[in-house]
Amino acid sequence: MKLTTQDRRDNQRRALSRRLTATELLPLLQNKRGIRVLETDETIKLRPWKARVETLTDVQKLVHLAMRKDIVDEEDLKTALTKQRRRAYEDEVTIQLERLGCQKTGRLSAGPALTELSELSRVDAQSIIATYNDDLAKTITGIADKNPRANRHTYAKNLKTWDTTRAAEKSKQIAQFTDSSARSVALKDFYTFNDVQGFAVLAPTTAQCPVCAGWIARGEVPMQEATNNSPPYHPNCPHFWQTFSDQKADQNGCAELWNGS
Ligand SMILES: [Zn+2]
Predict the structure, then answer these.
(1) Which of 120, 172, 184, 214 has the fewest CB atoms within 10 Å of its CB?
(2) Residues 6-21: pLDDT tens digits?
(3) Number of domains in the chain
(4) Looking at the domain assignment, is residue 214 inside a domain?
């Protein structure tokens, strides 16, 4: 399958959307407060993942308390992820409309699709925050292993670097996943609500993971099968369905096409 100018333009658009998402997520994944030096008599509120935190020393517990993410961070992240998902969804619907020859944009209004995107984001935000808090505890232990005499300043210095590096890497990974999962929902909705026949090819055509390699080897996949087996197949999965259809809509056809609302 040779890429057309339209394919290339659509893909540039998808890539731009992922970059935008990553930039917007970065500050939410980083610890903005820095390490507050807490009074030792301040009560340490243990979290559900407290098992690991309980194994830390008192100083380490304070460091963890100062840096970990809480329910407010989780809510902010969920809101941001839903916003990104909505944008990716609308963008993908626009791409699909354009491919049928329609100058119409995707618009997602309140309804089951938006609820689905919001629910995906809620689950993701929960897991991202829990992973952060757990990684934080592991990193604190790691710093002490290397430097048994580490004090709060040692932790602060090391954790700042860890936090920055981690956020940069994770924001790209999360952006990729958020964008891709929303586009998959959009694609499925588009071909469910519109009576359009077509097929899809998994792109890009190189893969590390056997699942992705399998779909690539299949070549042209009927649209329904493609949308029932949507990427991302794993974290960092760069794949998406490149769609093809012989159909083009006329003006009346365009007006009747479902565009998300
Ligand atoms: Zn993949």
Answers:
(1) 214
(2) 888 898 889 888 888 8
(3) 1
(4) no
